[in-house]
Each structure stands twice: as structure tokens, then as C-alpha cells.
């Protein structure tokens, strides 16, 4: 048995969500290699080599993999899949795009978005928007798996001494090209891996008022999230959306401001360790999942909270 | 604002299990129309009603139609809502294929109509009235008039109104005094009509007014009224709306409810006279109105059903959320856990389900009559149902919408929660399209006394058959229901005999007891439908049905039993008051008030 | 260009999910089923492309037993031209579904396969990608905008950091995300017309695909419920609890 963990990165740094995938790999129990596919991604490979317990780091550095598009990534991984019993990746949009294609190319199934590992062939995953948790087994010769990163702690890194090898069989399928990207540049932590998230909902009221949420997030060094209602209302971009159809997060602290707590939002954050809710409606469903609930006008309470934190932290 | 949950599954159950929709479609020779199609239709109508019309309900109440310079502008949002209604083809549901309709059974149209009414009664009045114009033209219009007006009316491109009432002619239509004077190939209409629903608006390029008026040589009284079409814009030689006709809304009413529905005073012919076209034969206006009456009156009954269900849904939601008091273990107690609140909610729920089943049974009676070439027997059953559906359901709706306010407590009295709106909107229902008394007199006079009680006896026989089937069942609930229902039917039969014996000879008797007869028959018919529901539930449960499911059937069973225990006794009460013939009513002289 | 739109029959998104007493599966008995919301969005997008003159025909395809006819009719009522039902009693695994769809797509010579990104029951988010891999075609997943320009599909995708627009050489596979469009209300006349549209039936055997299975669902459980929390009276109290009790700041 041997596991191949596919690294999530931006060609410059290794994303912490990769470490969640490594955690899953550790639970599977086999030795693991890390695959880094990208363009100009040598630094990422260096970081990957430091992950505790990694055996080898395979690097496919090629123009065709600059954007890690699914066609080229899946084909490249297929060319390098020989000998692995498990192929594990964090459930990022890149990996959700590529891994099923890889599975089909290998003629096997895929297990998506696992939240638990019971053994090398038994996994736990949410279904029906997380309203049910399924335990599934696979008898495929190669198990292709994506990992819900909020469900696994980051595996330790720093002591690893993986051997970095370049592979030269990157594949360019020539089927598509990237025309443009609108990727939000942010100084703030990434939603998927942040330990604190501050989210605003429709109650915030406007794009201008969202600045209150941002100020609180910055005070806590937190990632910035939003409910679907806030995104649809135009207060903030869709890349901040937390929920069933947005990002699933499970930080140590989740602060929900002006969010009523619709099922679809809860699906995205109810795995958080501690939940705080600030809402003017004392009966809002969010209070049913909140560890600490504060009732009142967020336009007063949020600045007050931010100021208090400034003096205490 | 509360969401509206369209009652798709319950409507399907009634159509399928009580009406026998597939069998009806076969009788009507409608190929490939069946319960599955009906289900798909109900689903889509449900979506439109809950997603588009319901959210506008509160707004139209707060932003009523406005009148200025002899023109009416409807509440904001309704024009777009109407466009969606029309674009999605809903105005064509029951109309004949010949003129662009879908030719679906009336009963399906009724099931769908309930959703329009429940989601937004003020708005839904508009297409409801258009149907009246369509029916009048279909039944009595010349081929030329049909060709010019029907396709557009059926498609919803134009709307239609009913102009009957005048300041001096409400319940007494014989007093109509609007005139129609021959002028070349048309007539000039002069007069004033009041309380004209959706008399004017800016949603469509034309409005087709149906008007009752007298010709110059008309006999006096009811035999001298003719029916005319008066378009807002006279059609040019291409059949397109052309010149503005001399008919204007000169004011709109500020009403207790249905603020979104413009209730207009229409002035015909203040200037040169409004151009109108005779529909059918002269002096036949009132008999023509009668052909539309079944549909129009039952339609109002369905409004009572719709508003009651809307109120019920809101009451349940509130009762689930509102916490008052604690349980012994310290946990919070929502008011829905208190028995008296559950009593109110069950009264609403069971009442609504009984009304829904009755409304569909009565509407299907029209379909069955059509399928049987309007045989005397089938038509009589339809006619018997009509005053009961209109009279009983609209009166019952007063209580049910009031209960919604009661469940809300003080907040129900505060407009903001919306409970008050439903109560206010419902208040017109026992009044228009023939007051409760008119319905009750129609029931006794035309529908019981006139044929010597034959139609009523036929209905009571069908009820007895249901009572017998219930009593013969091995199911304990059915037996209990059967016993209670049989007793009520006996009282009905006795009341019928009493009426037939005493009414013809005693001058004021019918009028004195008509209200109680109407309400008694209403509760009785509701009970009949609930009894048949119980039988269907038992049969489905025994057959391990997987279409409706255990949960749904369990609730239907209890609703039926609640009806027999708590609502059916009202029939006994009303029959009891009636046959007592309370002398005090006659004794108290007019000048003693 | 023909567009193939796979549609799936799933639990209605409004319905509360119940789990069987024996923990073997979700309880779907007497449960309202509907067309998967993402599939509905895919149908809508395909219809818009046909209405814009970009596509000639929209073909719905559904895998399942006779009862899925309900969802097929729903797609036809929305406006799909015809439909294909692949008769299978139990829902196959995603790889098999992809293989079945690949055969149909080949037979129909579909230039575009427009499908939902995931089904709200299994939440797998695999079939579109697998289908593209099997057919060796480009894929545009999680689409929020789709434009056809010449022999390319320009697809804007919702990705972790924001948006990415890709150009795919046709024939291609696109999977729809939530914001791609808002499906139209179905018109009454179209509900009537739907039953007259052709629904072809075929089987896995006819298509030459073996229905294999490598995954097994051992059990299904309800998610862990959170313990109820408390309401704090002030910002000061909140900060105190977060710092000293929960120790998260």
C-alpha cells in the first residue's frame, strides 16, 4: 500500500489544506508521497518535502500545469499513478475538478469529501447536505479520495526529509485554455484553513456596512466569510460564501453576524469548534447552534466588540 | 411575512381518491389527462403562487390601487405578476381548445384557483372576473363577438369585468336602470355601476366590461334586462384596441380589505355614450347571468377556502415559534403545546380540509354534468351545491381568519404580522356575488322547494350510503364517524320534510330560517366529505399505500375524526334551531327596534 | 449542435431528511421527489442556448426505473425536445453513470453535455468530470456563465479564490453551479405538450455498459448535534467567555 497526496498550492507556497489531506493519509496508514503539479513550483516542493513522514515529493513543473486545469492535471497524474493504492487530495476546487476525471481515466470510482477514515478501505462522508453521514467501503484497486479539509487537523510539518524528484511526463491535452481569472487578492487568512472566521449576513444591510465585519475580522486576524444572502445582495463577493453551496469551514471560532442561520448556511459551518452569534432577533435559528449568543443591533455591538478586543488582545 | 405552502398533496388526494379524477377525464373523453398530469399542473401553479403572488400580498395591502383623472393605477408589482400569470398560460386552463384554451376539467381549474386566491386574493380577483366574461361570451355571444373577444380574453391579453350593481340595485337586480340605446350596428350605454372589481387598471391594453342594461322597449323588472359588452377601447377594423370608449372609473372605494383590488364606480356614457354590443338575445340578461352563476359563486366560496388556509398556515407557524410559559422540566413551551391553541388550529385545519374537498366535489359536479350532457339530475346536484359552497364557506372563513388573529394574541391585532389582513380581506366574501341571505334563500327557494326536495333527497341518499359504509366498517373510527354522521343526515332529512311541509304555507318562514338551513347543510356536506376521506384513508392504509404515505394519511384520519367530534355537531345545532321555527323572530315588530 | 442534459430524480430540496431506524440508509419512502436543482439549472441553460439559436435540440436523459418519468416530464415541460430513459432499477455508481452517458452522448453526437455539478442526495460532484475523462473532452465545472463562441465554449467557473474563465474546444462537458441561472416557471401549455414529446427507452445492456459496483454503503447516521449554548448579556461578557472559558482568543 502506498498513498499519493496531491498538493494544493499556488506555485509559490504550499496551502495548509494539503496538511489536512496528509492527516487523512496518515489515518489510512500507508506511507505517502506528495505530488506537486504546477509551473515554477519548486518552492512548493521544498515545503512539501518538510512534511513529517513524507517519503518522496514528485514534481511536475510544466507550462501545461500552470493553472492545474483538470484535463492536464488528471492526465499527468494518471501517468504517475502506478504503484499507488490510494490517491488523496484536499477538496479544493482544483482537486474537485481533476480527481474524478483521474478516477475515470484509471477506471475506478472516487470517494468525495471524506470527513473520516476507518481503515484503508472504509471512509465516512456527509450526504444530503450533511443531514446524514454515510460510512462507505471501496473495493477499487486504487482508491481516489478527496478530503473535506475542515474535518482533519493539519498534519505536522517541519521535520520531514522527503526526496524531491522531478517527473518529466506532464501531459498537455490541448483541450482548453484559461482566458482570465478574477482571484481576490487578500492579506487575510484563507477561509478554508483559517482558525477564526468572521461572517456577515443579510442583517449587515449594505456593502458599506460590511466594513464593520471586515474590521472585526482584522482585529481577530480572521478570515472573512458571508452567508449566501449577503453575497446575493451584493455586499461581498461569492468567494466568501460559507454554506452548502459555498465553502465548508470548521475553524476554532466562527462569529456569525447578522446571519439568521438557515440550514444551508449551517451546513457550511456547524463543524466549528466554538460558534458565536450576533443578531437582533432572539429567535433566529443560528442561536440553536451558537455556543455564545449576543442579542442586539450588530451596528452597535460589532464596533463595541472590536474595541473591547483591541484592549484585551 | 409568512410563506404560503401550496396544498398540492391534499388537492391531489381529493382529486384522486374522492373525485376519481381519472374516471372523470375518461367520461369527458380527455385523452392523456390524468392524475399525474394534474399533479404536475398543481406543482407548477403552487410554485408560481408561492414564489410570485404570495410575496406581493402584504405590499398590495399597504399600497392600494390609486385613482387619478378617471384612471386607476394598480398596486406596484401587480402588472409584472399578471404578466407572469399570462405568459405562463394560466388563464387558458379550462377554456375550450377552439379559442386557445387547454380544455382541462373545471375541478382542476378550481384546485389551481384556490392557490391563486390563497396567495393573493386581491390580485387573483382579476383573472377570476375575466372568466365570467369568457363564460358569458362562450354561452351566449354571437360568432362574431366570440371571434373578436374570446381569444384575447382567454389568453389573458385583455381582462374582463362584471358590471351589474348600481347605487339602487344591489341584491335587487330588477332595479337596474342603466340604459342601452340602439345606434347603428351597436348601442350607446349610459348609467353608473358601482363596486366594480378591477374596473380599471394599466396591466393590459384593453378591458372588456360585461354590463347589464335596459333597452328602450324593455319590459319592467327582471324580464327587461339585457347583457352587453362594453370594451374600454373600441376595436378598430383590425380587431385591435382603437379609440377610447366612453366608460371611465370615476372613483375607487377605500375598503376594509382587498386593497390591491381596485373597486370602481364606473360611469358609462357621461359624454356621448359608451359603445356596447348586445350579447345574445334582448331582455335575456338575467337568465344569462344565471348560466355563469354556478362558477362565479363557487369561485367566491373557493376564495373563502383559500384565505382560510392562508390564515391557518400563518397561525401554525406563529404557534410553533411563540413561547409562553415553561414545561415542568423547565423547557420553553411554545403555545402550540396548549390544548386550547391546538383546538383553534385543528378547527382551522379540519375546516379547511373539509372545505377543500367540498369545493372540488362541487366543481366536479359541473364536469360530471357536462359529461352527461347536462342531464337534469347531474345539473340539479351542481345547482344544489352552489349556494352551500358560496354561503357556508365564506361564513366559515370569517371564523377561521378570526381564529388566526386569536392565535397571534395582541400581535394578531397589530397589522404588521399580517393576520389582520387576512381577516379584513375575508370580510367581503359573505357579501359580494350574492349575500349569505341570497345564497340561503336560493338554497331553500330554488334548490329545495322548487323541485319538491328531489335533488336534496338524492344528495341525502348518497350521504346515507356513506354513513352505512362507515358504520359497516370494522374500523372503530369509521364506526364512530358513521354513527355521528348518520344522526346528522337524519336531522337533515327531518329538516327537509319540515321545510317542504311548512314553507309553502307560511309567508316568512323560508326567510326566517334560511341562514340556519344554509349553515347546517354546509357543515353536513363538509362532514360528508370528511367521512369519505376517512373511508379512503382506511382503504389506503390497509393497502399499504406508498403514494401518500403513513404520515399524511395519519393526519387526514385525525382531521376527519376532529370534524365529526367538534364541527359536525354544528349541523345538528343549526337544523335544531331551524325546525324550532323561533317565534321570537316573528314577534319582534319592526318598530320595536 | 445538440445538447444532452442528464437529469436526476432526487429528494425534494425542501424536504427534511429522515434516516431509517436500522441505519442502513436514508428513508425515502413517501418522500417528495423532484428533479435535482442543479439539473434543473442545466436544463434552463440548455434551453437558453437553443433559444439563442446556438443549439438545435435539447435532449434530456435520465437513469432509473419507470417512476423517473415524472422528472423526465418535468424536463420536457420546461422545454426539452425529447428524452431518453436508461432503465436501471437501482441508481448505479458515478463511474457507471458516466459510462452510460458517454454512450448516449456518442450515439446522439451531442456537441455539449450540460449537467448539474452535483446531485443533492449523494453530493458526489463526480459524474461530469468522469464523463469528460472517459470521452477525452474538455470540462468546464462549477459554471456560473456559459457562452458559445464559434467552436468554443467560454465558461466562467466559480473557484476557491473567485472566478476563472476557460475556453473549451467543443464538444465539451459543462457542469452547472447555482448562480448559472434561475430556472423559468413552466408554462401550463408546455405541461400539456410534454406528454406528447418522445421518450426513448434503453438499457445498460443495449448501450454495452456493464453495471458494476465497487462501493458499498455500510451505514448512515444522523450528524452529531451540537449542545445548546448560552446567551450572554454584553460584549464584555462575550469577550470574557471567549478568552477564559472557550480559550479561542
Automatic annotation (TrEMBL), chain A:
Name recorded for this polypeptide: Electron transfer flavoprotein subunit alpha
The record's free-text note on cofactor binding: Binds 1 FAD per dimer.
Molecular functions per Gene Ontology: electron transfer activity; flavin adenine dinucleotide binding
Ligand binding (FAD): 202, 227-228, 241-245, 258-265, 279
Domain Electron transfer flavoprotein alpha/beta-subunit N-terminal: 3-182
Record carries keyword Transport: yes
SMART domains registered for this protein in UniProt: ETF
InterPro entries named among the record's database cross-references: DHS-like_NAD/FAD-binding_dom, ETF_a/b_N, ETF_a/FixB, ETF_alpha_N, ETF_asu_C, ETF_asu_C_CS, Rossmann-like_a/b/a_fold
Domain of life: Bacteria
SUPFAM superfamilies the record matches: Adenine nucleotide alpha hydrolases-like (SSF52402), DHS-like NAD/FAD-binding domain (SSF52467)
A GO BP annotation: fatty acid beta-oxidation using acyl-CoA dehydrogenase
UniProtKB/TrEMBL annotation, chain B:
Start and end residues of each Acyl-CoA oxidase/dehydrogenase middle domain: 162-269
One Pfam entry name: Acyl-CoA_dh_N
Reaction equations catalysed: 3-(methylsulfanyl)propanoyl-CoA + oxidized [electron-transfer flavoprotein] + H(+) = 3-(methylsulfanyl)acryloyl-CoA + reduced [electron-transfer flavoprotein]
Domain Acyl-CoA dehydrogenase/oxidase N-terminal: 65-157
Cofactor(s) required, per the database record: FAD
Keywords: FAD, Flavoprotein, Oxidoreductase
Acyl-CoA dehydrogenase/oxidase C-terminal domain mapped to chain residues: 284-446
EC number: 1.3.99.41
Enzyme class (EC, first level): oxidoreductase
SUPFAM superfamilies reported in the protein's UniProt record: Acyl-CoA dehydrogenase C-terminal domain-like, Acyl-CoA dehydrogenase NM domain-like
Transmembrane segments: none
Top-level taxon: Bacteria
Residue intervals of the Acetyl-CoA dehydrogenase-like C-terminal domain: 460-587
The keyword Oxidoreductase belongs to this UniProt entry's keyword annotation: yes
Gene Ontology MF annotations: flavin adenine dinucleotide binding; oxidoreductase activity, acting on the CH-CH group of donors
Record-linked InterPro entries: Acyl-CoA_dh-like_C_dom (IPR025878), Acyl-CoA_Oxase/DH_mid-dom (IPR006091), Acyl-CoA_Oxase/DH_mid-dom_sf (IPR046373), AcylCo_DH-like_C (IPR036250), AcylCo_DH/oxidase_C (IPR009075), AcylCoA_DH/ox_N (IPR013786), AcylCoA_DH/ox_N_sf (IPR037069), AcylCoA_DH/oxidase_NM_dom_sf (IPR009100)
Family: Belongs to the acyl-CoA dehydrogenase family.
Primary role: Involved in the assimilation of dimethylsulphoniopropionate (DMSP), an important compound in the fixation of carbon in marine phytoplankton, by mediating the conversion of 3-(methylthio)propanoyl-CoA (MMPA-CoA) to 3-(methylthio)acryloyl-CoA (MTA-CoA).
Protein name (database record): 3-methylmercaptopropionyl-CoA dehydrogenase
Organism expressing this protein natively: Paraglaciecola chathamensis
Record lineage: Bacteria, Pseudomonadati, Pseudomonadota, Gammaproteobacteria, Alteromonadales
TrEMBL record, chain C:
Pfam families documented for this protein: ETF
Cofactor: AMP
Electron transport recorded as keyword: yes
GO molecular function: electron transfer activity
One Gene Ontology term from the biological process aspect of the record: carboxylic acid catabolic process
InterPro entries reported in the protein's UniProt record: ET-Flavoprotein_bsu_CS (IPR000049), ETF_a/b_N (IPR014730), ETF_b (IPR012255), ETF_beta_N (IPR033948), Rossmann-like_a/b/a_fold (IPR014729)
Protein keywords: Electron transport, Transport
Domain named Electron transfer flavoprotein alpha/beta-subunit N-terminal: residues: 23-211
Similarity comment: family membership: Belongs to the ETF beta-subunit/FixA family.
Job description of the protein: The electron transfer flavoprotein serves as a specific electron acceptor for other dehydrogenases. It transfers the electrons to the main respiratory chain via ETF-ubiquinone oxidoreductase (ETF dehydrogenase).
PANTHER family: ELECTRON TRANSFER FLAVOPROTEIN BETA-SUBUNIT, ELECTRON TRANSFER FLAVOPROTEIN SUBUNIT BETA
Subunit text: Heterodimer of an alpha and a beta subunit.
Protein name per Swiss-Prot or TrEMBL: Electron transfer flavoprotein subunit beta
Organism: Paraglaciecola chathamensis
Lineage: Bacteria, Pseudomonadati, Pseudomonadota, Gammaproteobacteria, Alteromonadales
Amino acid at each position: 500500500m502506498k498513498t499519493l497526496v496531491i498538493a494544493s498550492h499556488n506555485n509559490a507556497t504550499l496551502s495548509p489544506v494539503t496538511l489536512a489531506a496528509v492527516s487523512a493519509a496518515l489515518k489510512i496508514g500507508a506511507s505517502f508521497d506528495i505530488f506537486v503539479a504546477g509551473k515554477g513550483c519548486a518552492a512548493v516542493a521544498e515545503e512539501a518535502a518538510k512534511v513529517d513522514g513524507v517519503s518522496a515529493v514528485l514534481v511536475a513543473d510544466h507550462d501545461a500545469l500552470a493553472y492545474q486545469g483538470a484535463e492536464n492535471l488528471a492526465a499527468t497524474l494518471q501517468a504517475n499513478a502506478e504503484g499507488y493504492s490510494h490517491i488523496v487530495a484536499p477538496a479544493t476546487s482544483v482537486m474537485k475538478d481533476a480527481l474524478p476525471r483521474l478516477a475515470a481515466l484509471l477506471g475506478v470510482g472516487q470517494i468525495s469529501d471524506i470527513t473520516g477514515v476507518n481503515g484503508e478501505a472504509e471512509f465516512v462522508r456527509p450526504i444530503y447536505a450533511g443531514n446524514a453521514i454515510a460510512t462507505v467501503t471501496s473495493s477499487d484497486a486504487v482508491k481516489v479520495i478527496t478530503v473535506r479539509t475542515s474535518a482533519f487537523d493539519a498534519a505536522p510539518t517541519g521535520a520531514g526529509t522527503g526526496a524531491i524528484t522531478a517527473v518529466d511526463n506532464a501531459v498537455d491535452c490541448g483541450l482548453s485554455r484559461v482566458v482570465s481569472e478574477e482571484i481576490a487578492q487578500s492579506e487575510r487568512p484563507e477561509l478554508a484553513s483559517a482558525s477564526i472566521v468572521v461572517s456577515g449576513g443579510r442583517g449587515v444591510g449594505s456593502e458599506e456596512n460590511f466594513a464593520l465585519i471586515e474590521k472585526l475580522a482584522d482585529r481577530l486576524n480572521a478570515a472573512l466569510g458571508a452567508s449566501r444572502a449577503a453575497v446575493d445582495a451584493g455586499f461581498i463577493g461569492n468567494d466568501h460564501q460559507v454554506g452548502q453551496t459555498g465553502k465548508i469551514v470548521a475553524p476554532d471560532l466562527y462569529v456569525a453576524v447578522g446571519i439568521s442561520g438557515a440550514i444551508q448556511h449551517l451546513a457550511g459551518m456547524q463543524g466549528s469548534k466554538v460558534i458565536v452569534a450576533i443578531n437582533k432577533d432572539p429567535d433566529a435559528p443560528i442561536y440553536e447552534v451558537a455556543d455564545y449568543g449576543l442579542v442586539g443591533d450588530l451596528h452597535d455591538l460589532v464596533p463595541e466588540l472590536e474595541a473591547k478586543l483591541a484592549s484585551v488582545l | 411575512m409568512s410563506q404560503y405552502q401550496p396544498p398540492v398533496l391534499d388537492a391531489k388526494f381529493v382529486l384522486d381518491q374522492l373525485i376519481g379524477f381519472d374516471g372523470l377525464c375518461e367520461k369527458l373523453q380527455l385523452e392523456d389527462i390524468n392524475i399525474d398530469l394534474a399533479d404536475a399542473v398543481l406543482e407548477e401553479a403552487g410554485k408560481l403562487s408561492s414564489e410570485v403572488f404570495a410575496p406581493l400580498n402584504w405590499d398590495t395591502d399597504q399600497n392600494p390601487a390609486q385613482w387619478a383623472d378617471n384612471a386607476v393605477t394598480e398596486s406596484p408589482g401587480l402588472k409584472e405578476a399578471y404578466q407572469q400569470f399570462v405568459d405562463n398560460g394560466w388563464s387558458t386552463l379550462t377554456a375550450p381548445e377552439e379559442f386557445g384554451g387547454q380544455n382541462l376539467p373545471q375541478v382542476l381549474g378550481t384546485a389551481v384557483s384556490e392557490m391563486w386566491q390563497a396567495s393573493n386574493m386581491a390580485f387573483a380577483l382579476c383573472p377570476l372576473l375575466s372568466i365570467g366574461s369568457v363564460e358569458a361570451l362562450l354561452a351566449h355571444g354571437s360568432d362574431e363577438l366570440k371571434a373578436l373577444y374570446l381569444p384575447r380574453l382567454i389568453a389573458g391579453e385583455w381582462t374582463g369585468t362584471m358590471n351589474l350593481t348600481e347605487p339602487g340595485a344591489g341584491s335587487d337586480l330588477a332595479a337596474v336602470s342603466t340604459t342601452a340605446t340602439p345606434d347603428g350596428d351597436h348601442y350607446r350605454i349610459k348609467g353608473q355601476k358601482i363596486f366594480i372589481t378591477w374596473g380599471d387598471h394599466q396591466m393590459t391594453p384593453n378591458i372588456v366590461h360585461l354590463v347589464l342594461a335596459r333597452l328602450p322597449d324593455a319590459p319592467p323588472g327582471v324580464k327587461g334586462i339585457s347583457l352587453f359588452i362594453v370594451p374600454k377601447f373600441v376595436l378598430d377594423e383590425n380587431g385591435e384596441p382603437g379609440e377610447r370608449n366612453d366608460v371611465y372609473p370615476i372613483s375607487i372605494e377605500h375598503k376594509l380589505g382587498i386593497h390591491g383590488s381596485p373597486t370602481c364606480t364606473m360611469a358609462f356614457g357621461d359624454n356621448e355614450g359608451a359603445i356596447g354590443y348586445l350579447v345574445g338575445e334582448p331582455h335575456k340578461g338575467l337568465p344569462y347571468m344565471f348560466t355563469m352563476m354556478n362558477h362565479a359563486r363557487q369561485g367566491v366560496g373557493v376564495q373563502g377556502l383559500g384565505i382560510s388556509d392562508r390564515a391557518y398556515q400563518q397561525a401554525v407557524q406563529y404557534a410553533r415559534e411563540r413561547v409562553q410559559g415553561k414545561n415542568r422540566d423547565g423547557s420553553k413551551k411554545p403555545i402550540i403545546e396548549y390544548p386550547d391553541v391546538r383546538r383553534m388550529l385543528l378547527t382551522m385545519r379540519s375546516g379547511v380540509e373539509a372545505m377543500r374537498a367540498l369545493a372540488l366535489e362541487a366543481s366536479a359536479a359541473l364536469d360530471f354534468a357536462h359529461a352527461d350532457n347536462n342531464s337534469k339530475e347531474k345539473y340539479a346536484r351542481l345547482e344544489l351545491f352552489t349556494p352551500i359552497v358560496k354561503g357556508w364557506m365564506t361564513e366559515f372563513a370569517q371564523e377561521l381568519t378570526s381564529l388566526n388573529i386569536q392565535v397571534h394574541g395582541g400581535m394578531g391585532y397589530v397589522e404588521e404580522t399580517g393576520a389582520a389582513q387576512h381577516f379584513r380581506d375575508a370580510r367581503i366574501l359573505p357579501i359580494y356575488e350574492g349575500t349569505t341571505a341570497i345564497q340561503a334563500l336560493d338554497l331553500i327557494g330554488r334548490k329545495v322547494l322548487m323541485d319538491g326536495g328531489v335533488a336534496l333527497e338524492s344528495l341525502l341518499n348518497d350521504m346515507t350510503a356513506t354513513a352505512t359504509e362507515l358504520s359497516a366498517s370494522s374500523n372503530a373510527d369509521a364506526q364512530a364517524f358513521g354513527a355521528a354522521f348518520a344522526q346528522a343526515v337524519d336531522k337533515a332529512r327531518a329538516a327537509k320534510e319540515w321545510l317542504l311541509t311548512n314553507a309553502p304555507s307560511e309567508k316568512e318562514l323560508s326567510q326566517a330560517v334560511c341562514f340556519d338551513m344554509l349553515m347546517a347543510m354546509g357543515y353536513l356536506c363538509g362532514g360528508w366529505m370528511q367521512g369519505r376521506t376517512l373511508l379512503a384513508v382506511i382503504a389506503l392504509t390497509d393497502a399499504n399505500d406508498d403514494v401518500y404515505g403513513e404520515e399524511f394519511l395519519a393526519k387526514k384520519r385525525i382531521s376527519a375524526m376532529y370534524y365529526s367530534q367538534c364541527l359536525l355537531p354544528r349541523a345538528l345545532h343549526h337544523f335544531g334551531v331551524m325546525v324550532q321555527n323561533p317565534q321570537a323572530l316573528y314577534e319582534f315588530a319592526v318598530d320595536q327596534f | 449542435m445538440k445538447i444532452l442534459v442528464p437529469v436526476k430524480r432526487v429528494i425534494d430540496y425542501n424536504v427534511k431528511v429522515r434516516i431509517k431506524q436500522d441505519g442502513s440508509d436514508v428513508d425515502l419512502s413517501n418522500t417528495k421527489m423532484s428533479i435535482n436543482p442543479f439539473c434543473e439549472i442545466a436544463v434552463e441553460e440548455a434551453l437558453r442556448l437553443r433559444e439563442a439559436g446556438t443549439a438545435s435540440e435539447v435532449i434530456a436523459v435520465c437513469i432509473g426505473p419507470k417512476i423517473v418519468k415524472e422528472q423526465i416530464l418535468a424536463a420536457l415541460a420546461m422545454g426539452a425536445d425529447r428524452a431518453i430513459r436508461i432503465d436501471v432499477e437501482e441508481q448505479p455508481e458515478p463511474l457507471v453513470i458516466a459510462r452510460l452517458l458517454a454512450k448516449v452522448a456518442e450515439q446522439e453526437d451531442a456537441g455539449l453535455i450540460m449537467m448539474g455539478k452535483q446531485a443533492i442526495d449523494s453530493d458526489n460532484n463526480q459524474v461530469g468530470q468522469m464523463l469528460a475523462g472517459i470521452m477525452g473532452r474538455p470540462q468546464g465545472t462549477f459554471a456560473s456563465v456559459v457562452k458559445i463562441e464559434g467552436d468554443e465554449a467560454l465558461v466562467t467557473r466559480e473557484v476557491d479564490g473567485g472566478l476563472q474563465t476557460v475556453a473549451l474546444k467543443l464538444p465539451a462537458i459543462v457542469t452547472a453551479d447555482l448562480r448559472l441561472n434561475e430556472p423559468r416557471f413552466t408554462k401550463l401549455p408546455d405541461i400539456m405538450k410534454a406528454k406528447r414529446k418522445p421518450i426513448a427507452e434503453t438499457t445498460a445492456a443495449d448501450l454495452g455498459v456493464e453495471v458494476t459496483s465497487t462501493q458499498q454503503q455500510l451505514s448512515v447516521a444522523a450528524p452529531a448535534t451540537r449542545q445548546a449554548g448560552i446567551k450572554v448579556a454584553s460584549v464584555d461578557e462575550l469577550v470574557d467567555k471567549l478568552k477564559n472559558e472557550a480559550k479561542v482568543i
